[in-house]
Amino acid sequence: MFESETAFIDENRIHTILTTAQRDIQSMPREAILHIIEKARQAQGLSLEETAILLFSEDPAVLAEIFSAAHAIKEAIYGRRLVFFAPLYLSSYCINNCLYCGYRRDNHFTRHRLSLSEIAQEVTALEAMGHKRLALECGEDPRECTMDYLEEAIATIYGVRHERGSIRRVNVNIAATTEENYRRLKAAKIGTYILFQETYHRPTYAKMHPVGPKAGYDWHTTAHHRAMRAGIDDVGLGVLFGLYDFRFEILALLQHAQELERSFGVGPHTLSVPRLRPAPGINLIDFPHLVSDHDFKRIVAILRLAVPYTGLIISTREESSLRNELLALGISQLSAGSSTDVGGYASASRASSSPQFSVEDHRSPDEMAADLCRFGYLPSFCTACYRQGRTGDRFMTLAKTGEIQNTCQPNAILTFKEYLLDYASPDVRPLGERTLQAHLEQIKNPTIRALTLERLARLEQGERDLYF
Length: 468
Ligand code: SAM
Ligand code: SF4
Hints:
Helix content is about 45%, strand content about 10%. It is of the alpha/beta class and about 475 residues long. It has 3 domains: about 10-75, no CATH class; about 80-365, Aldolase class I (TIM Barrel, Alpha-Beta Barrel), CATH 3.20.20.70; about 400-460, no CATH class. Strands 1, 2, 3, 4, 5, 6, 7, 8 and 9 form a 9-stranded parallel beta sheet that branches. Helix 13 links the parallel strand 7 and strand 8. Helix 1 (about 10-25) packs across helix 11 (about 245-265) and helix 17 packs antiparallel against helix 18 (about 430-440). The model has no long low-confidence stretch (mean pLDDT about 95). The structure holds S-adenosylmethionine (SAM) and iron/sulfur cluster. Iron/sulfur cluster (SF4) binds near residues 94, 139 and 214. Iron/sulfur cluster binds near residues 94, 96, 104 and 175.
C-alpha cells in the first residue's frame, strides 16, 4: 500500500470537525446534544461530527446522559457479561525504539525469548488461574521472534492441557507484518489480530517511532487491511492514550473503523483503550497529552455510543476502582491477573524482571470474578464464537439482530460454571453459584434455558467445553 491508501486517516477533515465542534458547542442548546445521545441510545452509532460534539461537552447534565446511555447500550447488547483474558509475553527483543515503551531498543536490560518449554510453563500457570483466552505479546525482532517461532508458540499453547485447563483462543498482538505472514497466523488458528496504532497523528507518530520497521506510518496503519485480506476476520484496533490529543485520536480511530467496514464489510471486532503507564526508562513528564481519569471515562463511554457493536477492552494498566467504574460505561472484555514481563507467570520461566510497563490492577482472576459477581456482572470465559465460525460479518449480523443473546448468555454461564468447578476459591464459589442462578433466570427462551440447564448438569458430572 502507498501513502494515498492511508488517506482514510484524513487529518484535515478531523481538524475541521474538531474546530467546528468546539465553536458550535458554545451556542448549541442542551436539547440538541441530548438528541444526539438519544439517537446513540438506540444503538445507531455516532457520526464523526456528533462524536466531536460529545467530546467537547463539559455540561455535567450531558455527561451524566452520556454515561447513562453508554450503560444502557452495553446492557442491551452485551448484557452483564464480561469476558476474561490474559496477555502472554513471549519475547522482549525489539529493534524499534518507541519512546514510550520499556522494551525499546535503547533500553539496556537482559532480554529474553521464551523457549517452547517455558511457554508451556507459562500456559500451565495461566490455565491454573482459569484462563481460556490469551493475547500474545512480543517486541518486533525478525531474528529473535520469527514467524516460525510464533507458529510453534501458538501450537504449543493450544497443546498444553493442565488438569482440566486448555487455552481455547489465542489472540495475537504483534507488529505489522506481511499478508503472507498473516495468512500463516490464520492457518495457526489465531483468534483476533490486534495492533494498536499508538497515535494516528503523523507528526507525533514520527516523533514516537524514530527508527525500525514501526517508523513506517503507512506500513503500520495498513496492517489490518493486510490481515483481513489474508482472511483474518476479527481484527482489533487501539490508541495509546497519552501520546497526542485524545479528541483527535478518537475521530481517527473511528475513521479507521469506518474504512475497514467500507473495505471488508465488517469493522473491527474490538477496540482497546490502553493509557500510557510508567515504564523502565520512561518519564511521564515528557508526555504533554496525558489523559485524566475524567477524560478517560468519557472516552470509553463515547466510544460505546459511537460503535455500539464493537467489543471494548480494558487492561490492568488501570487501577481497580477506575476499572470498576469503566465496566458500567461499556467495557466488554478485561484482562485479569496480568503480567507484562516475559516469563512473569511461572517463576521457573522468569529470566529477568523488566516489564514492558507497570500494571495497576493486581487482582487475581479469582478476586476479579468475585468483585464482578458482587457488582451483578457475569464473568465469562467464553471462546465459542471463534470456534463456531461466528467471526467477522457473521458475528456482527448475529450481534445486530440480538440473536447473540441466545448464545452469549448461556455460554457465559457454562464457562463460568467450569471456572467455579475447577478454579474458584472456596470463598468465591458460593457467590459465583448465586450469580449463575440469577443470570440463568434471565434467559427468556425456554428451549435455550432447558438446554443450558442440561449442559450445566453435564458439567457437574465432569464433562467440559460445552457451548452453543
Ligand atoms: N510490539 C508490538 C507493537 O508494538 O505493536 C506488539 C505490541 S506491544 C508488546 C503492546 C502494546 O503495549 C503496544 O502496542 C503499546 O500500545 C503498549 N505500550 C507500550 N508501552 C506502553 C506504556 N508505557 N504504557 C502503556 N502501554 C504501553
Ligand atoms: Fe517494541 Fe512494541 Fe515496545 Fe515499540 S511498543 S518498542 S515495537 S515492543
